[in-house]
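Please review the protein record below. Tell me whether the encoded fold seems credible here:
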Amino acid sequence: MKRIAVAGFQHETNTFAPTLAGYADFEEADAWPGLLRGGDVLRGLKGINIPITGFADAASAAGGYEIVPILWCTAEPSSYVTSDAFERITGMILEGIAGAGELDGIYFDLHGAMVTQDHEDGEGELLRRLRHVIGSDLPVVVSLDLHANVTPQMVEHASAINIFRTYPHIDLADTGVRAFASMQRLLTAGTLRKAFRQSPFLVPLTAQHTGSEPCRTLYASLERLEGETLFSADIAMGFPPADIFHSGPSLVAYAGTQGDADSAADTLLQSLLDAENRFDDRLQSPEDAVAEAMAHTGPRTVVIADAQDNPGAGASSDTTGLLHALIAGGAQGAVLGLLNDAEIAAKAHEMSIGAEFPALLGGKSGQQGQVPFKGRFRVEAVGDGEFTFAGAMFGGITAKLGAMAVLRVLDTSADVRVVIGSTRCQCLDQAIFRHLGIEPAEQRIVAVKSSVHFRADFEPIADKILVVEAPGAHPCRLDNITYRNLRPGVRLGPGRRPHLWAGGRSA
């Protein structure tokens, strides 16, 4: 019986975002379960589309493996992970592994874009410390998010890395299954030779959609490459709002010989380089998008994505630029969600449905130049924020988002409703609206605070999808960003100007 310890520690860090991720944020249950330890890890994540569950299920199906769960946690994307949170959670993981008895391997369910107050490469530092405890021989397999900023340190300390291949991420559990295959290979046939390459340009999240070119072709090529000489290869598109030296796309390849690993890595890198000018990072103004949506005469919904206020990329989810544009443009049959405003959500719950009141909605996160929407609102529905996601990505997870409400904007010729909540959560699942009695497919316009993930559940109901450049802490036009830590010469988006070294750690 082979004994495999499993653990997960996930955070996607936007170093330009306004709020830190403290220990309490990892403890809190929101769109994901809160921090789990020991046997609660597998019980709490059972049936969920997540890598650690896919890994454990594959091990159970294979037989002959004992899974030893240590800890799993995640926090909503934000700015830096605090030193306290990183040290406490890392300490619990390493202590658990040290006390787990004799092990044959370790599997980590990580993100790959964690930046802490002390470490640019959170995952690499975790793996470095792990190797200090267990030595260099024990197999360590890691799964990473498609947006991982893979670093040389991660590659050095991991025996194998497997990375999501879809964005929206619908293959999380499947990636865990592939990670288990990597573990089996290491335990039965020994060391895999590895190759690692980095891209000389960044790709904004809005251009990383794997259902569009060139990502569709790039990711389709991975299975074709894998075969007798190549065990596995993966591409990470990177998370550009992380201002670190190793930010950006990269790729890994694993094979029985170094030559085969290098050959596959070079082939993939050339494919990525050839595709550079095909990444589409164009965004519309909110005003143009509202006008286009209103002019649309098709039978189905127009979805407008507020990409830069996406909490799934660390934004506050409370900016009001798109809401102002919907009102000014006279939008009809429109609903916007999910706007984070716990204060107004609590006030809506205090009042009865049908009550009308003036309020300053949103714009409370303290970002420079961001202002609330000043208006009068009618409470049309309230909810406790506890419901089950039903889309392909989060399906089966029970959300715990706190007080929620539907507010209709009054005293305007526009017909606009706003879904508000008390906890930041990317609007990537129709259940967020249905929880409050709104059927998205019946709306003329649905505005979502999301960059790409919304496509998995909203694309099937949409005639048209428009991605807008409204204000928010997830910057999508990368050549407008002042990077201080990115390695020099990396182009700030496909075909854009190269980064000039500024030096120093971002504040």
